[in-house]
TrEMBL record:
GO terms for cellular component: contractile ring; midbody. GO terms for biological process: actomyosin structure organization; demethylation. This is Alpha-ketoglutarate-dependent dioxygenase alkB homolog 4 isoform X1. One of its GO terms (molecular function) is dioxygenase activity. It comes from Neophocaena asiaeorientalis asiaeorientalis (Yangtze finless porpoise). It comes from the Eukaryota. The keyword Oxidoreductase applies. The keyword Oxidoreductase applies. Keywords: Dioxygenase, Oxidoreductase. Signal peptide: none annotated.
Length: 373
């Protein structure tokens, strides 16, 4: 297989990073796997798998999508009901377009990172944006795995249709949500299992398919959170790190209905060491393998990770624990639905202090009998 030449920065035709060529397309049929950093050797063993049809609930019967109706079905799930655009779930300092209009104010000012880098999933490097101070400079960005075309267009349309049969709850910053998981108080480190009946039935095949990839072979999720974004509400999510008391090493998210950008930032002191981006990147970049030539303060850097439609994203290691992730309002150009799956931390694992509770949560989750809690 010919190796793709390393990027010198985003193509000028792709000023919007949503459209940036972030993933190498190895085959036209099987899902594509792009792994950044040291995970590449593990993923190399298997890059394509036979797909199994998504198993959907038998009642009520879900009509199969004929080729002539597929586009209409996908357009239908992308429509936002008018009443959704009149209600707001924001609290505290967070706002959306609805409450900003009601209050007669503008979106609160947010600090913009000074230096922008674009993540290239086929190399595992973050490269300075074109026409920036660090154009042509790069650094390894490990811990990101991107599996393109994880579900088919018909599966995507049917999944969102089934989500829309259940109520969506208003959430912060213009989002709506559906939770399939235990009720958790992260501040007090307490949880309640009452009302939790597992992941939804239509996720059974999604979870099975995850296990076909080396990075997710032993991934057993105990929570699924669906988030609904739309530009009419000004949907976004602020930079944050997911909890580590309950949730484990891997965060897995399925991106549906439209492409977007995951923006990653780090508030740690110190600087990132940069290398001059070569004309051809190594297959498995290693930190420190190339002598650094420049540095940039961590707090001034934002890394844009383009997320294609129907792609599955896995965050581990530094990308999971050190870099905050966010979705900016400007990167929501159409309705977007994400389904995020989380596994248990070591404390709830076989050798953990709360292993019995962990086993109970797993048995309930993987029964796939859940409704939104």
């Amino acid at each position: 297989m010919a190796r793709r030449r390393g990027p010198r920065g985003p193509d000028r035709r792709h000023a919007n990073p949503v459209l940036a060529p972030a993933v190498v397309r190895f085959q036209e049929v099987a899902p594509r796997v792009s792994v950044g950093g040291g995970d590449r050797k593990e993923a190399a063993a298997r890059t394509s798998y036979p797909a199994r049809a998504l198993q959907l609930p038998a009642a009520p019967a879900a009509p199969r999508l004929r080729p002539g109706r597929q586009d209409a079905a996908m357009a239908a799930v992308a429509v936002v009901a008018p009443e959704v655009l009149r209600e707001c779930g924001c609290k505290g300092i967070r706002t959306c377009l609805i409450c900003e209009r009601q209050r007669g104010g503008d979106q609160p000012w947010q600090h913009q990172k000074t230096h922008r880098f674009i993540y290239y999933a086929d190399t595992g490097w973050a490269v300075g944006a074109e026409e920036s101070d660090f154009e042509g400079w790069a650094f390894p960005f490990p811990g990101v795995t991107l599996i393109e075309d994880f579900v088919t267009p018909a599966e995507e349309a049917e999944m969102v249709r089934l989500m829309d049969r259940d109520p969506w709850k208003l959430s912060q910053s213009g989002r709506r949500k559906q939770d399939y998981g235990p009720k958790v108080n992260f501040r007090k480190q307490k949880l309640k299992t009452a009302g939790f009946r597992g992941l939804p039935s239509f996720s059974r095949e999604v979870v099975r398919r995850m296990g076909l990839y080396p990075v997710l072979e032993d991934f057993r999720p105990v929570e699924q959170c669906n988030l609904d974004y739309c530009p009419e509400r000004g949907s976004a999510i602020d930079p944050h790190l997911d909890d580590t008391w309950l949730w484990g090493e891997r965060l897995v998210s399925l991106n549906l209905l439209s492409p977007t950008v995951l923006s990653m930032s780090r508030e740690a002191p110190g600087s990132l060491l940069l290398c001059l981006a070569p004309s051809g990147f190594p297959q498995a970049p290693v930190e420190g393998a190339t002598a650094p030539g420049r540095s940039v303060p961590c707090r001034e850097v934002e890394v844009a990770v383009p997320l294609p439609r129907r792609a599955l994203l896995v965050l581990t290691r530094a990308a999971r624990h050190q870099w905050k992730h966010a979705i900016h309002r400007r990167h929501i150009g159409a309705r977007r639905v994400s389904a995020t799956f989380r596994e248990l931390s070591a404390e709830f694992g076989p050798s953990g202090r709360q292993r019995e509770l962990g086993q109970e949560l797993l048995q309930t989750s993987l029964s796939f009998q859940g409704r939104p809690t």
